[in-house]
Amino acid sequence: MASGTRGVAAATISLAVLLLVFCFSPSTAAAAAVPSIDATWTRHLPLPRGLLRGPESVAFDAKGQGPYSGVSDGRVLKWNGDTLGWSTYTYNPDYSSEACTASLLRPETATEGHCGRPLGLRFHLKSGYLYIADAYKGLMRVAPGGGEATVLVTEVDGVPLRFTNGVDIDQVTGEVYFTDSSRNYNRSQHEMVTRTGDSTGRLLRYDPRTGKAVVLQADVTYPNGLAISADRTHLIISSTGPCKLLRYWIKGSKAGTMELFADLPGYPDNVRPDKKGRYWVALHREKAELPFGVDSHLLALRIDADGKIIEEMRGPKGVRPTEVVERKGGRLFMGSVELHYVSVVTRK
Ligand SMILES: *[C@@H]1O[C@H](CO)[C@@H](O)[C@H](O)[C@H]1NC(C)=O
Questions:
Q1: Where along the sequence do coiled-coil regions lie (predicted)?
Q2: Atom 14, ligand 1: which residue's CA is nearest?
Q3: Is the per-residue pLDDT at 3 higher than 50?
Q4: Pocket lined around ligand 1, Cβ cut-off 6 Å
């Protein structure tokens, strides 16, 4: 027992060291003191009983209902308030509860390739369509009211999507921006994408008017979540392995080019606008995180339109958020690919 525990600890430390090596660069941003939100104690929106977990992305529809979140058995669930809890909203064409409900003998790691794994979610507010970046199924969409989703894109330029990850929408034109994190590794191998420095990810755009998808930028290092800027001139994209945010210009003199937007003190996942031209970026883990010491780490950062960190959220190391969305009244909804609930943090 004791030696087993030490083995695990040693493995964790070597992983931490490995992450240090692959993600080390001086970060001026980390040093600056900014206002901090304490997310040690949060309200939970617990997933239905069983082995279900991992509400990765948290989305709200045009009426402000939700959150909606994709979970480990391949479904997207909708939160209907404390009394009713979660209900099934949508699922991919291959989903069935018989084949996809996890059990002790059949963990989700054995079924997710077939059952799907919804990651990024985003509503097109005008049409009510929900777009889903499913790690294994590709880009999908479901009409208002939910039900079975339609698979829209499974390959672009003849190259199959292997690890569809983040999604955002130009709410005016309806164009959908999304990422494929790697040509070489699928979601279950996400640690390899970081470890090998894999730079075969792609930034893609789907046009709902033509039904076609195009590559905007190839050879990106672990592109993950993304968000379109408030003025719709550019995209902010997480590059997870190198702990950076990138900026891709859609319009203007730099259109079609990509540049560094910010160096981060941790591994970014989804990026969400805060409706004031700034962004919340969820961090999976800090760059230099050790598995001992004070049980507190960075959960998320608020970044302004110039790439500067202006606020942070901290909480227990066991919480590794994948998305943070700010709603009215200073409420922040936090998704995680590992936990059994969505957290609601209230800003004091
Ligand atoms: C991910 O890719 C590996 C290597 O090709 C494969 O062995 C594995 O089955 C894939 N995982 C899933 C869940 O599809």
A1: none
A2: 113
A3: no
A4: 112-113, 186, 188-189
Q: Please check whether residue 132 lies inside any domain of the structure.
A: yes
* Residue 147 domain flag: yes
Tell me the CA–centroid distance for residue 162 and ligand 1, in Å: 10
Is 277 domain-assigned?
Answer: yes
pLDDT (mean) for 101-122: 95
Alpha-carbon span 9 to 160, nearest angstrom: 38
Q: Which CA distances in Å does 129 have to 92, 185, 210, 250, 298?
A: 15, 29, 16, 23, 33
* This prediction's pTM: 0.91
The answer to whether the beta carbons of residues 135 and 182 sit under 8 Å apart is no
State residue 19's pLDDT score. Answer: 46
What total number of domains does the chain contain?
A: 1
Q: How far is CA 132 from CA 77, 166, 218, in A?
A: 12, 9, 21
Is 136 inside a domain boundary? yes
**CA 322/CA 282 separation, integer angstroms:** 5
| Three-class DSSP category at 139 | strand
**pLDDT of 12:** 47
Average pLDDT, the chain: 92
- Higher pLDDT: 292 or 266? It is 266
Q: Flag whether pLDDT at 67 surpasses 60.
A: yes
What does the pLDDT read at residue 165?
98
The CATH number of residue 87's host domain is: 2.120.10.30
